[in-house]
Amino acid sequence: MPTFQVLSCFAYSRENNRLHSVLQNGEVLLFNCDTNPCRAVEVWIPQTTDEEVLQIVQLTLAYEKEEVMVTDTVILGGMRNGQICLLEAEQCVMIKNVQAHVGTITCMEGATDIGMTGFKLLETNRKLATGGDDLFIKIWEIGVKANELFDSIFIQLLIKIPCVGMPEHICMYENTISVSTSDDSDKGKLHMYRLDGQESKEIQITTLQHTQDEDHTEHITAIDKCPLLGLFATASEDGYIKIWNRHNQLIREMGFGEPMHGLCFANIRGDILIGFQNHI
Predict the structure, then answer these.
(1) In whole angstroms, what is the distance from residue 191 CA to residue 165 CA?
(2) Looking at the chain, which terminus has fewer C-beta neighbours within 10 angstroms, N or C?
(3) What is the CATH number of the domain that holds 13?
(4) Whole-model pTM above 0.90?
(5) Which one of 162, 185, 211 terminates a domain?
(6) Confidence (pLDDT) at 73
(7) What are the residues whose beta carbons fall under 8 Å from the beta carbon of 72, sequence distance 6 or more?
């Protein structure tokens, strides 16, 4: 790998202890994490510019095969040509790529669901959210159809949501989606939507509002979720971390005096890791 190559997107598999990362040139670099430091073991190079991988997501799919429930962890890529492709799976196949957007896929996220008790996150995924430079957010149902020959992944569009700018960050759990765009005219604004009627297949979109003065004043650099607490968190170049509930209400903000370039919830209790300068 060239020195100082920038890694722009990641997917880590705990089961296989492997890390998939996307390079800025559209290649996918695979690391073996059995050692410290980890070792780069493979580079997947696209054949054409259109096939460059710009986004990557890891999902765990559950399906019934021969009257037994099985799971498979799959790696999906979002390409420059707007297609979703299967990069890696142990059991499943995808017959052909899915044309998700008219143009580049700019963000991808697997939706997290909560178990029936409300106290545990499900380890499998049933929905996928994507954003593209066609200015749409799209929500997909994803699953597997098993037969004697192969276990085939299907991706079916549920609904699409128009955006005021190009989606840059997207985060989803249950039926709630948080989005930020890269447009200067929409700088610092968090958009939140709720999907109702998913069981009846007649999905309705509710836009959840907050007052303009609660938004960040600079671009949002990261969004993450803590589903069991019903929270989203945003980081911004304005030096603030903001915490929102699932109704798009601002409940806390923290100022650090430095541009924030990364953020994630570290656990289900809501502890937060932040990235600024070269620090965590």
Answers:
(1) 11
(2) C
(3) 2.130.10.10
(4) yes
(5) 162
(6) 94
(7) 60, 61, 63, 89, 90, 91, 92, 144, 151
260 HSE (CA, 13 A, CB side): 29
pLDDT (tens digit per residue) in 242-274: 999 999 999 999 999 999 999 999 999 999 999
Same domain, 40 and 144: yes
Q: Residue 244: which domain range?
A: 174-280
Phi, psi dihedrals of residue 211, rounded to the nearest 5°: -75, 150
Question: Considering only CA atoms, which of 22, 124, 17, 117 is closest in space to residue 73?
Answer: 124
CA distance 255 to 252: 10
CA distance 72 to 37: 27
| Identity at 59, one-letter amino acid code | L
pLDDT, averaged per 10 consecutive residues of the chain (280 residues), comes to: 68 89 92 91 93 96 91 96 95 96 96 91 95 97 91 95 96 97 95 84 90 97 97 97 98 95 94 91
Whether 10 and 20 have beta carbons less than 8 Å apart is answered as: yes
Torsion, CA 35, CA 37, CA 42, CA 48, rounded to 10:
150
